[in-house]
Design a protein that fits this description.
alpha/beta; 12 helices; globular
């Protein structure tokens, strides 16, 4: 089945409130109708989410959060809940990003709980999976991704599975300038599709699987032309309007 391409910019720890509003306004002006043919979202830091929502209001650009806590409220200093994200106007929430896993010890079980919390609040999860360089060199890529997908999505209903996106991000390609070849990306995306058919057959073919890992204007179109690559989760290149716009337009080819 034809799946609409989905491109999301993960801004990580960049952009003030004013810078966020300015970039969103620039994107909406430049993308025009393209932000509709391709689903487009950006994920600013928590402090700028409200400003991003306001700057995007009336356009097709959607706002995502970069992380979430699985509890609705409580004594969790520094954390933000899914109902809070829904309240500010977030449509998506990124969970399980490799930086969260590598730098902050996030586990597959934590990812599973965060996915459930987002869905319960009406926010659509973008669930990140991917192997390290050591795991790839040991030939364990598909084993690692299989575990992360199955454990991160454990217990979800078919309806819930139909409301999420998977993002395959090989850790060795994030921020390194290295990118998986289109063939490498397609191989893993096809494997993820097989896993999804196993855990949620009725909706497996409608779930988008994005590629992330040094996506840039020069490689975006080729990557997204692969049959099981349904868009991109873009890091550094999403911080510059011209680069992100070129990537979005690459999804139209």
């Amino acid at each position: 089945m034809a799946r609409q391409k989905f491109v999301c910019g993960n801004w990580k720890m960049h952009k003030t409130v004013a810078e966020t509003a300015a970039l969103v306004r620039e994107l909406r002006s430049a993308l025009g109708d393209a932000a509709g043919e391709v689903q487009v979202a950006v994920a600013p830091p928590f402090t700028a989410l409200a400003a991003a929502v306001e700057a995007a209001r009336g356009s097709a650009i959607e706002i995502a959060a970069q992380d979430v806590h699985w509890e609705k409220q409580g004594a969790f200093t520094g954390e933000v809940s899914a109902p809070m994200l829904a309240d500010v106007g977030c449509r998506h929430g990124i969970v399980g990003h490799s930086e969260r896993r590598q730098l902050f010890g996030e586990t597959d079980e934590a990812v599973r709980k965060k996915v459930g919390a987002l869905l319960a609040a009406g926010v659509r999860p973008i669930v990140c999976v991917g192997e390290t360089l050591a795991e790839r060199e040991a030939g364990r890529t598909l084993e690692v991704v299989d575990r992360q997908v199955r454990q991160g999505l454990a217990g979800l209903s078919v309806d819930e599975l139909g409301r999420l996106t998977i993002a395959y991000e090989p850790v060795w390609a994030i921020g390194t300038g290295k990118t998986a070849t289109s063939a490498q990306a397609q191989e893993v995306h096809a494997a993820i599709r097989r896993i999804l058919r196993d855990v949620g057959a009725p909706v497996a073919d409608q779930i988008r699987v994005q590629y992330g890992g040094s996506v840039k204007p020069e490689n975006a179109a080729e990557l997204m032309a692969q049959p099981d690559v349904d868009g991109a989760l873009v890091g550094g290149a999403s911080l510059k309007a011209a680069d992100f716009i070129a990537i979005v337009k690459g999804a139209l080819r």
